[in-house]
Amino acid sequence: LTNGTTDYSVCGRSSKHTAETGLEIPDDSPQARIRGGQEAVDSWPWMVEMRGAADGEFLCGATIISSQWLLTAAHCLRAGKDDGYRKKSVNEFQLRLGLTDRKNTSHEQEVFIEEIIRHKDYIEATNQNDIALLRLNQTITFNEFARPICLPPSHDRLSQRLPFYNANQTAFVIGWGAERKGRSDVLRLKQLKLRIQRQESCRKAFENFTYDGSMMCAKYAEAKGDACEGDSGGPLMQGVVDDETVWTQVGIVSWGIHCDGRKPGVYTNVARYVPWIEEVMSRARNVSDAAQPPLPGTADSKA
């Protein structure tokens, strides 16, 4: 609290969501699908909808990590096969915050991208280093429906004593993506409870694909749910209970095989990139836009 009022700039707070169930509702509530997931009754306040500016088509998710920065997957920022997989420009996206139901705009904030910074080592063919930052041209108004999620400690500061990334721990993925491969996206935000998998198990599951330390994987316990088309760029989250539940983004939805949970979903391991995120944001704060040198990534900005 600040002067008796809630400080919405504090990261990871959401009174509506518990660390073990994701919501303060029974586990046997009616199920919808992220694929296999539960409909989110209340907003996850750091979730961002990314859609095409020209046609309004839903594209990906992103997350608020500060008042002017969003985190997403690098592959969300390229055009499709019919458009030559080119890099999209900042003007091709429309971003909306404060949504649970995409048709209910009562708490919506629309924001605009000033600059796209893809990780310089992103490899499109294998989705290695599948991470990007979006710098906004305005400041987000934080409130109950729009506030930042916390970032984890950097990878070199992690240990098994910290409640992140350990095998079989609970994590949640959220998104508006398709219920099944090839289907259209959904209007209400969905969430799915997963278990983080051991890296050895992940490598074995994807032994015919490129799977490296920039990635992590998580799986639905009953093998009938996973993130799917359109969920890309959204968060994989872990909730840690202190005085209240604090949510941390440990992964970014990146890729997978099918959408049915037979194999784990693969996520960009955010802890591996915390130093890069901090460097990009710090340099942007300390250097005026007019004199700013290239940021440590592949940057696109408005003309």
From TrEMBL:
It catalyses: Selective cleavage of 103-Arg-|-Ser-104 and 124-Ile-|-Ile-125 bonds in Limulus clotting factor B to form activated factor B. Cleavage of -Pro-Arg-|-Xaa- bonds in synthetic substrates. It comes from the Eukaryota. GO terms for biological process: cell adhesion; hemolymph coagulation; proteolysis. InterPro entries: Peptidase_S1_PA, Peptidase_S1_PA_chymotrypsin, Peptidase_S1A, Trypsin_dom, TRYPSIN_HIS, TRYPSIN_SER. Keywords: Cell adhesion, Disulfide bond, EGF-like domain, Hemolymph clotting, Hydrolase, Lectin, Protease, Serine protease, Signal, Sushi. One of its GO terms (molecular function) is serine-type endopeptidase activity. CDD domains: Tryp_SPc (cd00190). SUPFAM superfamilies: Trypsin-like serine proteases. Residues 1-35 are annotated as: Disordered. Residues 34-282 form the Peptidase S1 domain. SMART domains: Tryp_SPc. Its EC number is 3.4.21.84. This is limulus clotting factor C.
